[in-house]
Design brief:
The complex is a heterodimer of chains A (265) and B (306). Chain A is mainly α and 265 residues long. The two termini of chain A are 38 Å apart. The longest helix of chain B has 56 residues. In chain B, helix 3 runs parallel beside helix 7 and helix 8 crosses helix 9. Chain B is 79% helix and 0% strand. Chain B is an all-alpha fold and 306 residues long. Chain B is globular and about 75 Å long. Classes of the chains: A mainly alpha (265), B mainly alpha (306). Chains A and B meet through helix 1, helix 3, helix 4, helix 5 and helix 6 of A and helix 1, helix 3, helix 4, helix 5 and helix 6 of B.
Chain lengths: 265, 306
Amino acid sequence: MLLHSRSARAAVKAAVVLVLALLLGVPLLAIVLAAFAGSWNGVWPSDPTLSHLADALAADNLASISVSLQTALVASIGAVAVGAWAALAARSAPRQVAATIDALLHLPAAVPSVVVGLGLLAAFSRPPLTLNGTATIVVMAQTTLVLAFAYNTVAGAAASLDPVLDQVAGSLGARPLRVLLTVRLPLLLPSIGAALGLAFALCMGELGATIMVYPASWRTLPVSIFALADRGSLFLAAADTLVLIAVTVAVLGLIARLRGRTMVR
Amino acid sequence: MSAAPATTAAGEPTAVARAPRIDAAGDRKAPRALAWAIPPLAIVALIFLVPLAETVWQSVADTSGAFTGFEEWGLEFASAALPKAVGTTLWIAVLVTAGCVLIGTFLAVGLSFVPFRGSGVAVRLLEAVVSFPSFIIPLAFGILYGRAGVLNSALAGLPGAPHVDFVNDVPGVVLAEITYFTPFVVRPLLAVFGQLPRELLDVSGSLGAGPLMTIRRVVLPAARPALAASAGLVFLLAMNEFGIIMFTGAKNVVTLPMLIYTKSIVTFDLPAAGVVSCVQLALSLGVYGLYRALVRRLSGGLRAAA
């Protein structure tokens, strides 16, 4: 035991609770309360209302939610597909190549989202590939930004796979494709599911690169929330944020259920 | 002191044992393995490397992509805005890292060694916050501590109370980033402390060390690799942060990402944005290289930080 005196333990506990409350509790509580506040002119909000939440679920905003969902789903699936493929390729490649793949796939995490966005604008604003102003460029931005996390999650699991399993399957006459489909991928499914969840959550909240590249016709929810907050509609922004978190958590739950069903024991 | 060499020694045999297997497989199947690596690498090149190269090229080219020279570089480096943005970026990153390390260490030590009812919930919440959108913190700060926020309207009722106004400036940005990034320090530290034998603390105490001495001599040395790795990560994240600063609406906090955004989206000066991006890239990749080297040297921290 680190602290034997009762009063010292109580003091440390109180300090930890206080810091946690200021760090997490108060901001999260503020968002929830503001989302339902008609007005907030004292310590506590007054005139509780559902109108902000109703606005957050109105037609205009539903479009943003749908755009966010589609973008995040396509981008996270794309990032996990590329990341998992690269992780598997790195595992069977010679060591130098594996190190190069590893370094390259981690690199996007080090580059600021604004630079990723600017790069896409610079590369795809003129022929041969003109994607500026399309939904594709938003998807590409989010895919790039979560690629490193997707790769890292799957590569970690791939490194701890028992190589004997591959060799046994191979020595029993299974072709490499069959080993991949029936041995390696099923064993990696939990990590692929985890990578998908993480990538999806990050995509749903992405603002930096999206705000650089989004066209007016493809506005994600975080961009709408930023516009609201910038105008000073903080309560409405809070309600939208709650909706964003709720939708994200719902999809994460769905991914977790799929993971549970496909889990190999 | 003792933790870093011990974990390195434990980490090395697996790397050595794994090497011959990969090489043996690589010798036989090298061409096929290389062919397998091409599709994902091609996609990464298309969506990431080509855009990066285009950004760099943009700083020395006109809008049609033709080379125009290094004029823009001279202009940007002669301006006051760029050096000031570099200074602001690094200063904010230093403050945020220091704050996260201090608060994160305190929280991790407290949660690990002086647990209380509900500390499990707190730990899970800390882990969940990382996957929340980062702008919830500046949004909450605006609601709570903004010019027309809750704190100010509460204070307005008291005679002689001060008017609080820090959200839209450096302190607001730094506090919001500390709030959002602290879990990145707490999580790896909790993992390290969870594996620290409790007997060590008892022995240290029975040998006469007070709690502070035990923390300094036993707890913190064990945490040093993980702490160094997560401090490096937070520094990098803080240097690259854009969404939080944007959301606080701090007009006079011009970091490099803010400058890139202003130059490219607001004033549409793409060559200038290219130059600032090159500076930002050099800094970010430099810090990232140092971070990777640090993690590799303290390989005990690698797993803890991941």
